Amino acid sequence: MTAPHPTYDQLAPLPAYAEQPVPIAFEDVNGHLNVRHYTGIASEGLDEALVGVGIPQNWPASGHACFSAEHHLTYLAELRTGDRMSARVRLLGRAERAAHALVYLLDESHRRLSFVMEEILLHIDMETRRTAPWPEDVAAALDRRIADDATLPWEPDVSGSLALR
Length: 165
Prior knowledge:
Elements: H1 8-11, E1 17-21, H2 35-51, E2 64-75, E3 84-94, E4 98-107, E5 112-125, E6 130-131, H3 136-150
Antiparallel strand pairs: 1-3, 2-5, 3-4, 4-5, 5-6
């Protein structure tokens, strides 16, 4: 059995990433954020969060990259055009070549959790375009962030379908 989703009030103190209103261009025929944009905005938030562990947005220029390997997506509450949203990130674990993360999209306008993206991401050597061990400095920074996130006063709401190998 997985833990319940954290509440808005539990997530709000975490650093906010990808803060923006839902643009009209992202609206679908149902009048809310199109499904494809939830994942994109969550990915932007994760990318911003990874800067703090030594993974800059232009990392491929130095021969490294992060590629997504697996996702589990949970839609909880619709985001509508004009609603303010932000992403919060919790890092769960790291293997030699991979990391496990949760990204939460918050509906800031209605103070609720809207979407959860669980992801396995891989470190890629851009010369070979294959997985490679994390650089030592990044591995150490990931480990520190994972340890910090493990002290959060709520259990991670993992799907049970993703795991580090």
